[in-house]
Amino acid sequence: MLVKEVIDIIEEFAPPAYAEDFDNVGLLVGDKSTTVTGALITLDTLEGVVDEAIEKNCNLIISFHPIIFSGLKKLTGKDYVQKTVIKAIKNDIAIYAIHTALDNQYKGVNDMISEKIGLKNRQILIPRKDSIKKLTTFVPNEQAAEVRKALFNAGGGSIGNYDNCSFNLKGEGSFKPNEDANPVIGKRGEVHLEEETQIGLIYPSHLEKKLLQALFNAHPYEEVAYEVNALENENQHLGMGMIGELETAEDEKSFLERIKNQFNCGCIRHSELREKPIKKVAVLGGSGSFAVNPAKAAGADIYLTADLKYHDFYKGDKNFVLADIGHYESEQFTKDLLHSYLTKKISNFALILAETNTNPIKYI
């Protein structure tokens, strides 16, 4: 397989269109046309990870965090970022970063954390609003089923756990082909009335090009009439963080002790405990201070995240606990998630979990 073909599989799972604006996802180093000898899956790409890739004959590194985050003006090897990039280039190793494109997926980073904790009835904590569009088109009645099927196959008409969703209205369409037209139905220079079906369905915005191509290919008319509208609806299967419930309520200290052991935390910093059982839990892997208020508003008993600052902990109260379990610790299982997904899709070469520990934080 080529690097490009692997990227296509990754981006089917986590479309880069849904990465945050500040992020730098995608192919950061390398040539898409390179044949892959093996892929190393890691949380971070550092020099040691590149060395591991060389040792294991992997010329593609699939990384959660991007090694290049802001612009590089020079490549002199003066810092760890430049040294890593130089070594990767010298050894013809491509680097792909997925980061917040995966953070925003329902079956992404936070679902993995929730699964480890044992949360039920899971929902996105901060659903996205800018990711759903609606397509409306008009098709002769006899071809309506064929066009609907093509749109469904292209990814349109999915709402949560339901697919093949559309709304259809019967009506009468009119058109007059001019002298340059090549009409399938009707005659040049004459007004034609046709019994048509109006098909309306929603779709994720990143599939728009694919969906419109399917429409044009399946539609019988020379000129296809259609409308595209952006919707303000929240996407319940896309967004940051997750909230769910424990099967059985747990004592606060026992719960935090369990989390510390499960995630191998050097320590857990937390706000004052409430002396109440934990039942509803909000999570957000990585830096999650921006979601403290949404977690609180959602009725979480406790919010597990990382990189909380001193003043963030003041937002805890008698009904709400904040707990910082560590950045690396909260995201460490992400590479297992990627490995599991890719092994189901790819059998052409080795997919290897990196053994290099990239956590820069140590504990005494």
Automatic annotation (TrEMBL):
It comes from Salegentibacter mishustinae. A divalent metal cation binds at H65, D103, H327, E331. InterPro entries: DUF34/NIF3 (IPR002678), DUF34/NIF3_bac (IPR017221), DUF34/NIF3_sf (IPR036069), N-reg_PII/ATP_PRibTrfase_C (IPR015867). Keywords: Metal-binding. The keyword Cell membrane does not apply. This is GTP cyclohydrolase 1 type 2 homolog. The keyword Hydrolase does not apply. It holds the Pfam family DUF34_NIF3. Gene3D superfamilies: 3.30.70.120, NIF3 (NGG1p interacting factor 3)-like. GO terms for cellular component: cytoplasm. It comes from the Bacteria. GO terms for molecular function: metal ion binding. Belongs to the GTP cyclohydrolase I type 2/NIF3 family. Homohexamer.
